[in-house]
């Protein structure tokens, strides 16, 4: 990641923890806690006499025998054994999605047409799993009964696992959908569409709010009916959609696939190991758990994480960045990194494949020159680059991002230190800094990064996609994974010396570079570079900058 590495998904095992404070005169027996209830914590001026930790399993996402049933796929912490052959067959099952958008409708993603956004989503689903098939139509074709595309749409809907309806408000289109789609499709989700359209999850109707969107007060209704698993899916999807970005649009579909159709490998950290996880934590990390719970910031981080979906990287990292502390780092280092109590695994994504630039200023790019491009303006300025915009909603949206690339004192060593601001969830503006070790990749212009971030190691593969000859701007792509957190990610950052967007004459070259990454310009987040006073910059004494193979004056 450009500025922060690890999306530590602590939620799966936070659900296993229950804290009991026993007074000297009495003790109370522990009661089960659900995800949405607050932790029981002792007063800060008193020490607990005892702490008991028991398991509460509420993850609804381990596959069971029934697909497309009424309830989400349920985990019982090992009480319901699922055969490996059944799981394997589910993982190979093709998932069919149909997207239906309002003709000519415009998205909030920098005014991109919804049809273009959904077609791009279909392409990006393939990066997760080749067996995810999504077909996109607009409702303008519904006015013609003779159009062969209508028959094609009907055929796709009859075989669909999910129908995603976006910005459909035409009364004739709504009538057609109600007539043709209600019975056959087990999962229907409607966004920014007519309230007359009905949402369905797992074959059961779920309410719609006045905006024609999931879900308003639906979560409260489901919880009153003891349907907490569905309520959790509803809330996760609704919150993700409201963030209005391409990653979260895809995430909405992945959550529903994982809950109601078949497991999604990238969301596997939703599946708790039950008592085995708990036993690992208590046996190996008891003191770290206690220290975390006694530390106000660490405790706030756990409470905050417990309100996030385990796979919601945006929500999770906001909690981590807001409340990071030595106690939280020690907690994560022990539970996740050292002992892998959740038994998770994640690999760096191999899609999309992004080729590096092969020439710079007319010459073949070599390893030393590629490193010099990273070093960039450091020496002339106090930083290598400033981030103008980024694609990943969890990590590229932080304000005032500075990049520091430099050669270390040890021969062949190379380092990257991002410096960035975080607006904490309590409204405080704070500076954060990370330190990555950087190794050359096999091909010049590619690099392997690694960092210990809040107790968890992340490994990333970076590519220099393009850099202007005058170093007026650059585009860097990254793919990464926090292995023991069970999560992987991709993104890209647009950089310049002053944090300003490249001028219009660079537009075609920039768009071409983004296309190599599989990114549309409307996916980029503009970084807020307005209030960046006194950044904690500087590099270690004895570090060096550009290599002797490139004249420093050429880089100015």
Automatic annotation (TrEMBL):
InterPro entries: Calycin, VDE, VDE_dom
Domain (VDE lipocalin): residue spans on this chain: 279-529
Transmembrane segments: none
GO biological process: xanthophyll cycle
Domain of life: Eukaryota
Gene Ontology molecular function: violaxanthin de-epoxidase activity
The protein's name in its UniProt record: VDE lipocalin domain-containing protein
Naturally occurring in which organism (per UniProt): Stephania yunnanensis
């Amino acid at each position: 990641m450009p500025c922060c590495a690890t999306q530590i998904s602590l939620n799966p095992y936070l659900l296993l923890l229950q804290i009991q404070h026993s007074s000297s005169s009495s003790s109370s027996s522990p009661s089960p806690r659900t995800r949405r209830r607050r932790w029981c914590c002792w007063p800060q001026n008193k020490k607990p006499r005892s702490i008991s930790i028991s398991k509460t399993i509420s993850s609804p996402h381990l596959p069971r025998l029934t697909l497309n049933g009424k309830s989400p796929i349920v985990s019982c912490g090992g009480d319901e054994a699922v055969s490996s052959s059944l799981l394997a067959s589910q993982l190979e099952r093709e998932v069919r999605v149909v997207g239906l958008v309002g003709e000519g409708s415009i998205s909030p993603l920098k005014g991109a047409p919804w049809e273009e956004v959904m077609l791009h989503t279909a392409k990006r689903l393939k990066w997760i799993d080749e067996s995810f098939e999504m077909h996109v139509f607009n409702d303008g074709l519904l006015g013609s009964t003779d159009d062969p595309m209508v028959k094609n749409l009907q055929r796709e809907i009859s075989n669909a696992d999910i129908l995603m309806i976006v910005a459909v408000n035409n009364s004739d289109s709504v009538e057609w959908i109600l007539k043709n789609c209600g019975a056959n499709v087990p999962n229907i989700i409607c966004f920014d569409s007519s309230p007359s359209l009905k949402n369905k999850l797992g074959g059961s109707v779920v309410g719609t709010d006045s905006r024609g969107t999931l879900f308003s007060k639906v979560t409260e209704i489901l919880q009153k009916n003891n349907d907490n698993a569905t309520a959790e899916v509803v809330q996760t999807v609704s919150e993700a959609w409201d963030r209005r970005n391409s990653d979260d649009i895809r995430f909405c579909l992945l959550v529903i696939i994982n809950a109601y159709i078949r497991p999604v490998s990238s969301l596997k950290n939703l599946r708790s190991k039950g008592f085995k996880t708990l036993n690992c934590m208590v046996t190996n990390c008891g003191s770290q758990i206690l220290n975390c719970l006694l530390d106000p910031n660490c405790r706030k981080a756990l409470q905050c994480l417990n309100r996030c979906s385990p796979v919601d990287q945006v929500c999770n990292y906001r909690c981590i960045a807001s409340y990071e502390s030595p106690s939280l780092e020690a907690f994560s280092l022990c539970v996740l990194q050292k002992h892998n109590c959740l038994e998770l695994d994640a690999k760096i994504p191999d899609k999309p494949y992004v080729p590096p630039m092969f020439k710079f200023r007319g010459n073949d790019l070599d390893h030393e020159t590629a490193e010099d491009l990273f070093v960039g303006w450091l020496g002339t300025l106090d930083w290598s680059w400033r981030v103008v915009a980024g694609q990943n909603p969890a990590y590229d949206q932080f304000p005032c991002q500075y990049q520091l690339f430099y050669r270390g004192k040890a021969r062949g060593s190379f380092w990257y230190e991002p410096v960035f601001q975080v607006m904490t969830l309590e409204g405080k503006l704070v500076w954060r800094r990370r330190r990555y070790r950087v190794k050359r990749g096999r091909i010049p212009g590619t690099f392997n990064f690694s960092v210990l971030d809040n107790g968890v190691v992340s490994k990333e593969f970076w590519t220099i996609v393009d850099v202007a000859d005058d170093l007026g701007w650059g585009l860097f792509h990254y793919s990464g994974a926090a292995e023991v957190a069970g999560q992987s990610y991709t993104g890209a950052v647009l950089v310049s010396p002053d944090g300003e967007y490249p001028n219009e004459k660079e537009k075609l070259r920039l768009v071409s570079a983004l296309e190599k990454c599989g990114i549309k310009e409307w996916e980029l987040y503009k970084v807020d570079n307005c209030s960046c006073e006194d950044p904690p910059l500087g590099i270690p004494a004895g570090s060096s900058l550009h290599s002797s193979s490139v004249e420093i004056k050429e880089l100015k």
